[in-house]
Amino acid sequence: MRATDFTYLDHPTPLALAHRGGAGYAPNIGFENTIAAFRRAVAMGYRYLETDVHATSDGHLVAFHDRVLDRVSDAEGAIAALPYDAVSEARIGGSEPIPLLAELFEEFPEVRVNIDIKSDAALAPTVREVQRHGASERVCIGSFSERRLRAARAALGPRVATAAGQVGTAFLRFTPALVSRMFHTPAPVLQIPATHPVAGRTVTLVTPGLVRRAHGLGKHVHVWFHAWSREDAEEMHRLLDLGVDGIVTDHIDVLRDVLAERGHPLVPAG
């Protein structure tokens, strides 16, 4: 299927996606994936948010990146092993609660959400929350697990956008003769890093040829960055010059300025 088949992707490109609310933006540092961080991104003009999701032991779905609470919160333990009552007491940066995915849908009804399902246990709760909030047309589902993506598509139906998995995209990069077969997937988006380690070496995934092939099949190319990747204005300009359709960034102020320079300014909320 093509990007034009999905309501989620009907905004003019390039799309700007706030990764974890903009984890590298100075006011958000230490407060990633919090309602406060997402509010700052939306106030800046972001209409696409990115978050990861995990399920608690009693099936509540939280917007949080790590499998365990230790790195950015004042609590410890694996989310999957804890009931929501315990997880809800944790504070990110010492002050901000860990939000439920439902809170993002309810707090930002006009915003679209890119959801990375981080565990098998989070699959069914993700489907439940998307359906409960009637959000099928305002989400894009991604996962490092192709099996989870297939299950999400089956459960949510053809109107939900999904992002082709990273494994499949790396495969595409090395076997261009199999492009047509690869893109029989219903995913309208390739969501990939500009570079990726493969077999002990760094491989450039986002090339002019890949972007052309994706566009020829009606697919979007959205680029995200590894923690060790270069993520500055020069690199964003380079990727946009290649014709990528979206950038998923921690540095939401940098991308805002890049888009303004290129004549695609974000419109601040309110």
From TrEMBL:
Listed PROSITE patterns: GP_PDE (PS51704)
Domain of life, source organism: Bacteria
Domain GP-PDE: 14-259
Pfam assignment, any one: GDPD
Listed transmembrane segments: none
Signal peptide extent: none
SUPFAM superfamilies: PLC-like phosphodiesterases (SSF51695)
Gene3D superfamilies: Phosphatidylinositol (PI) phosphodiesterase
PANTHER family per record: GLYCEROPHOSPHORYL DIESTER PHOSPHODIESTERASE, GP-PDE DOMAIN-CONTAINING PROTEIN
Name of the featured protein: Glycerophosphodiester phosphodiesterase
